[in-house]
Amino acid sequence: MVTWPWQRDRTVARTLRVRSRGDFGDVRRVDFEELAPDIDTFLGQAAYLQLGYFETLSELIAPTPELTQKESISVAAGAALHKHRAILALIRERGDDPLDLMLPFREPLDAFRRSTHGARSLETMLSVHITAGMLDDFYLALSSSYGQTGRRVADILRGDDDRQALVDIITDAIAADEQWKSLLALWGRRLVGDTLLIARAALRPQTLDAAEERKVEPVFTDLLGAHSRRMSAMGLDA
């Protein structure tokens, strides 16, 4: 389990709930404010995650041979960078230094990026699509805990991520070579455990007791359900 250092403890009323969204089905609200991280942790992690997506996608541009695919990857990278900068601007508006808030999470989130970086470009594209999708959903669920600041972060995260082009590249590769299907399905299943560990580590307690586990279960159930739908949309088994 990753150990997360907690930053300044600002008093903010926190209520963690699953947001209403079409692909998650019925709305379920889960109130466990004692588990939600402080607002500095929330903002620092959210900002650094978006920077990580940008970094990973940017690294894929040079080795990608097709010009149209280079453009698609660059657009998705640009969307992540836009969200990163928007969260940084919000942090600065609050009078904080974004580097101070992000620095505690650099090491664990960089380790997460390395562990989910595939040996092949298609695996890494799938990593970004799956991990960013799950963690964006999780941070959207967290966002309702932080009042107006949380609503602004939610608006940022709901912005266009331009990752559908990555899905198109993946599905085209599967259509051209059926062997990709089983390989990417296996890779997609591998990503889930590492991604859920990152989500769990974002919660205030480093370990959860049985009662706390029951409180968070609906959120993680929704994350897994959305993951399954993302995989199915690409013709992959979750």
Automatic annotation (TrEMBL):
One Pfam family recorded for the sequence: MiaE_2
InterPro entries listed in its UniProt record: Ferritin-like, Ferritin_actino
Gene3D superfamilies: 1.20.1260.10
Domain of life where this protein originates: Bacteria
Boundaries of every Ferritin-like domain copy: 42-199
Protein name: Ferritin-like domain-containing protein
Gene source species: Microbacterium laevaniformans
Lineage: Bacteria, Bacillati, Actinomycetota, Actinomycetes, Micrococcales
